[in-house]
Amino acid sequence: MELRPHVFAVVPKLPPKLKPLEELAYNLLFAWNLDIGRIFRRISEELWNETYHNPVLLLARLSQERILELEADDAFLADLERTYRAFKDYMEHPAFSHYKGLPEGLRVAYFSAEYGITDCMPFYFGGLGILAGDFLKSASDLNLPVVGVGLLYQYGAFRQRLTSEGEQLETIPELDFYHLPIRLLRDDEGEPLLVRVETDHDVLYAQIWLAKVGRVSLYLLDANIPQNPPFLRQVTHYPYPDDRRLRLLQEMLLGIGGMRALKLLGVEPTVLHMNEGHSAFAGLERIRILKEEKKLSFDEALLVVMASNVFTTHTSLPAAIDLFDPGLMVSFFAPYAEQLGITMEAFLGLGRKNPKDPHEPFCMNVLAMKLSGHINAVSKLHMEVSKKMWHSLWPNVPERDVPIRCITNGIHVPSWVSRQMAETFDRFLGPKWLEDPDNVRVWSRADEIPDDELWGVHERRRGRLVAFCRRRLREQLKRRGASPREIEMVDETLNAEALTIVWARRMVSYKRPLLIFKDLDRLARILSNPKRPVQIIMAGKAHPNDNEGKRLLKELMGIMKLEPFRRYVVFIEDYDMNVARYMVQGADVWLNTPLRPLEACGTSGMKAMFNGALHLSTLDGWWDEAYDPLLGWAIGGRDSEVDPKYREELEAKELYDLLENEVIPLFYDRGPDGIPRKWVKKMKAALKLLGAFYNSNYMIERYVEDCYLRAYDQSLALSKEGYKGAKELASWYRKVSRAWEKVKVVKVVEESPRELGTGEFLKVKAYVDLGELEPKDVSVDLYYGPLGPDGNLRDRKIEPMEFLGKEDNLWVFGVSLLCQETGSFGYFCRVTPNHPYLIPTHYALGLLVTWG
C-alpha cells in the first residue's frame, strides 16, 4: 500500500489594509480589468511578469519588507480602495442588468474541454479555448445566468522551443493548483467535494475547483487525486490524450462528471450549451437524471433534453472529430445504457450517422447533434461547410435546409485591446465601447478619433511589438547557444517604423504559413526596399504529433536564415496569449492564408482589427462575411473547387500583387505630417463597420435570443404539470414515426396557367394521403424558388398551405402565391410532422419528411 502524507496548505497573511488584494487575486476579472491588473503590476512589475501575471503567486512571493512598504503607502492604499470599490460594484450589479425581462428560471451550463482566460492558467490549446474564455468573460459583463464546466489539467499547454536547425522541442509545465487563482471546493467537514463516474472496471473520482470569472463561476474537475488508481489519475493530466481509452474517460468525466458536479453543487441548468462534441455525454446524463428523478421514459426525457440543448460545432475537418471504436463503447457503456432504458444497439446508434451500421465508429459530434434541438456553426461560410459535412444525418432534406444555423464567433474586446487603444476609445467613443460593445452607434463615432491620435497609438504599439520581439529573440538565441555577435545583431533586426505584417496561428498545413514565401526572390525585393521597408513577424506551434506542421516550421526557419530575410523575417517561439496580445496590438497587417473553406472562423483577425490592424486574408472563416474593400484586402476568390496546387500558385501571386500595388503604397502614402491618412481611413472604417458585430457580447446576445430563450421556453412547455407536454409529445412522436411511411403526396394540381404575369397568383392544391394521421399532425408547405441552369432551385422560400378539407379520402391543402418577380421558378409540396410542442424546426424529427 502506498503511504501518502497528510496535506495542509499555507497561504500568505496580509495585514487588514491589504486584505482586498486576496479577493481581487482570486477573481479572474484581473485578466481584463486594466485597473485591477495595474494594482498587481504596481506591487511588483518584476514579480507580475515572472509569475506570468498570476496575482496569487505574486502575493505568495511578496517579501515582508514589501508588504510593510505597501501598508505604509497612502497613494497605493487609496488606489487599492478605489479599485476594490469598483470591483465590488461590478460584482454586485443587479441581476440580468443587460437583459430586462429574462425568465427567472433560465440557467445556462456551458461545457468546454478547454478555457483560455488568462496567461497563468494555460488550459487552452487553440481557438476553441480562447473562444470559451471570451464567452465566459462576456457572460460576466452581461451579467447572464451562466456557469462554466471544464477539466483542470495537471499539465498545461506545451511550451515551444526551437533548435538552431528549426526542430520543435516541447516541454509541458506541471501546474501548482494551490498557487493559481482557483479554490478547491469542500464539504461541511472540510473534505474535498468528489464526483464519481463509473468506468469499465473502476470508479473514476474527481474533485471540483472553482474559478471565478468575474460574476461567472467556472467549475473544473481534477482526477489527479489519491482516490484514483494511477491510470485513472492520468485522465486530467493532458487534454486530448492519444490513448483512446484515456480520451473516452476524459470525455466521460467532462460530460457525465460535469453534470454530476453541478448536481452536487445544487446547480440545475435549464439550458445546456456544449462547445464542441467533447462534452456530448452531458446530454445523456441529463436524460439519465430526468429518467431517474422524474420517472420519464427515455423518449420523453430525450425530447426534453433536445429542446433545451445547444450545440456549437467548430471544426471543418472530419479528422479533428472524436471517434471511438464500438467495442470500447460497449465495454464502458453497457450498464449505462441499461440505466437509460435502451439497448446497447440503440445507444451506439445515437453516435452514428447510420445507426444500422454495426461497424461505424461512435462519433461525439453526431451524438451532440442528435441530442440538440439548437445547432450552430461559427461563421456563415462554416455553416455552409457544416451543412454539407453533416447532410447525411438529414438525408431526406435539401442540404441548405440542414438545421444548422450560424452564430459567428466574436472576441472579448477589453481582453485584447491595448491600454493605449482603450484610453483612446474612452476619450472619443465614450465608456459604452466597454459596457456595450455591440452598439452600432458607439463604433459609428470612430470617425471622430483624430487621425494623429489613432496613428500615434498604433505606432507606439508597433514599437512595443518590435521591442518585445527583439527581447524574445535574444532569449531564443541564448538558449540555442548563439555567439555574442549573433545576439548583438538582434538590434539590427526589425524596424520600428517599417510596415509590419504578422502571421500568428497554429502551425498546420491547411493554414499555409509558407504561402508568402512561395517566390523568395520577389519577396526579398519587397522586404528590402530601402524606401518602403516591410517586415514579417511569425509565431505558431505545431501539435506534438503533427509531423507535417513540424516540417513546415523547419522549412520556415531555414528560409529565415537566408541573408535576404535575416533582418526582415522573425519567428517568435511559444505562441500563447501573452505573445498574441503583443502581436494583435502591434501589427499593421494581419495576414491569414488558410485554404478555403477549412478555417471555421479565425478570431485572431478580429483581435487585430480592434487594435487598428488591417486584415489581409483569403476569403475564409469570418473574413468571408466581413470583407469589404473599404476596410481590408482579400486574397483569391470564393471558388473552392480549383485544384489546390494551382490555387496556391494563383493566391501567392495575388498576395504579392496586393502587397506591391495596394498595401505597401497605401502605407507609405504620407502627407507632410507623416500620417498615412488613407490607411487610417481604412482603420476607422473597419472599426465602424465591424466593431459592433465581431465581439463576444454580440455573439452571446445571439445565443440568448436565437437559442437560450427558445430552448428555455420549449423545455418549460414540456416540463410543466409533471412533464405532461413531454409525455404527450413522446406519445405523439411514436404514433407519427410508426405511421409516417404511409404519408404520401398523391397528386399536385396547379389551378393557374403555366405562365403568369407579375401580380398574378400561382394557385396550387396538394392531395395528401395521411394514412393513420390527421391534418393537425402535419404541416404542408409550398417549397419554391427560382431555378438555376441545372433545373434545380437556386434559392428557396416556404409558404404554408392551408387545410381545405377532404376529397376522395385524401386531405386537400391549398395556397395562392402572389408572383412578384419574373423568371423561371419551381416548387415542391412538402409534408413534415407538426405539433405545438415540437422543437421549432421543420426537421426536428430528421427522417420524417415527404415531398411531392
Share of helix among residues? 40-55%
Stretches with pLDDT under 50, minimum 5 residues: none
Radius of gyration, in Å, reads 29 Å
The count of β-strands is 28
Describe this structure in words.
The protein has 852 residues and is an alpha/beta fold. The chain has 29 helices and 28 strands. The protein folds into 4 domains: 16-91, no CATH class; 108-324, Glycogen Phosphorylase B (Rossmann fold); 413-694, 3-Layer(aba) Sandwich (Rossmann fold), CATH 3.40.50.2000; 743-851, Immunoglobulin-like. 40% of the residues lie in helices and 17% in strands. α11 runs antiparallel to α29 (696-739). 46% of the residues are buried.
Task: Draw up the topology in text.
Elements: H1 20-25, H2 34-43, H3 45-50, H4 55-61, H5 64-71, H6 74-91, E1 108-111, H7 127-141, E2 146-151, E3 159-162, E4 168-171, E5 183-184, E6 194-198, E7 203-213, E8 216-222, H8 230-233, H9 244-264, E9 271-275, H10 281-294, H11 298-308, E10 309-312, E11 323-324, H12 326-340, H13 344-349, E12 362-363, H14 364-370, E13 374-377, H15 380-389, E14 405-406, H16 413-416, H17 419-429, H18 432-435, H19 440-443, H20 451-479, H21 484-488, E15 499-504, H22 520-527, E16 534-539, H23 547-561, E17 569-572, H24 577-586, E18 589-592, H25 604-610, E19 614-618, H26 622-626, E20 632-635, H27 644-667, H28 677-690, H29 696-739, E21 744-750, E22 761-769, E23 778-786, E24 797-800, E25 802-807, E26 810-818, E27 825-833, E28 850-851
Parallel strand pairs: 1-2, 1-9, 2-8, 9-10, 10-13, 13-14, 15-16, 15-18, 16-17, 18-19, 19-20
Antiparallel strand pairs: 3-4, 5-7, 6-7, 7-8, 11-12, 21-22, 22-26, 23-24, 23-27, 25-26, 27-28
Helix pairs in contact: 2-6, 7-29, 9-10, 10-11, 11-29, 20-24, 24-25
